[in-house]
Amino acid sequence: MVTYADSGTLIGRVSTALRVLSAANDTGATTSEVARSSSLARPTAHRLLTSLLGEGFVDRDNASGRWFLGPELYLLGASASARYEISSQARPSVLRMAEATGESAFFVARRGDESVCLVREDGSFPIRSFVLYEGARFPLGVVASGLAILAFLPDPEIEEFLSRVDLAATRGPSYTSDAVCARVEQTRRRGYAVNPGLVVEGDWGMAAAVFDETGVAKWALTITGIENRFRVERQEELGKLLLDEAHRLSRALIRQPSRG
């Protein structure tokens, strides 16, 4: 008999495996990569993926053996989109930021402990940033968008998150709790977040939180690019643009029916 605890563990494993495949984007992932990223034994990961294949939740390329998200997820996503899809409202803001700055611009949503990129538009500047792409996931506080969201959560929620998620263990000494808290305070003072190349050296990002009708930070607008495009004298200009667009988008989303 499957117990409630067993079912919870199974659901957690399935969710983790699907997120690994989502993060793999168009390249897919091998069984070993899914196992390693999910902290599962390889035989366990293979059995799990095979079961999901039978249900259509994952797909497998026979030539390479790599796993991908499956067609059933597309159908489920299409059904859910009426409630949760806000990319169409956000895209004009993202496009305006890309056109005004020349940088890559994004719309990002909070999903639990992570920030997930939903929309990307590239500006005219020829050197691109590839840290973010549609579907990319990072723990809150890692990239600028996740930091912007984290900074405007209540202090007890930030403390609880940092007590559970050891960012320094996976991201290095720039992500100790003290370092993240210091950046949270800087973000609150400025109104917008700055990531000075902490994920990829020389690849900078800035972001501003977008709020729902109750004042909760659920999304963020962000721009990324190379370091010499984010010098101190330009940051104030970029920060103002981000805050203006985030305010505009927050007002637009407030006028819409409640969304996740």
Automatic annotation (TrEMBL):
GO terms for biological process: negative regulation of DNA-templated transcription. One of its GO terms (molecular function) is DNA-binding transcription factor activity. InterPro entries: GAF-like_dom_sf, HTH_MetabolicPath_Reg, Tscrpt_reg_IclR_C, Tscrpt_reg_IclR_N, WH-like_DNA-bd_sf, WH_DNA-bd_sf. Residues 72-255 form the IclR-ED domain. Signal peptide: none annotated. It comes from the Bacteria. The keyword Repeat does not apply. PROSITE patterns: HTH_ICLR, ICLR_ED. Keywords: DNA-binding, Transcription, Transcription regulation. Residues 11-71 form the HTH iclR-type domain. This is Transcriptional regulator, IclR family. It comes from Williamsia sterculiae.
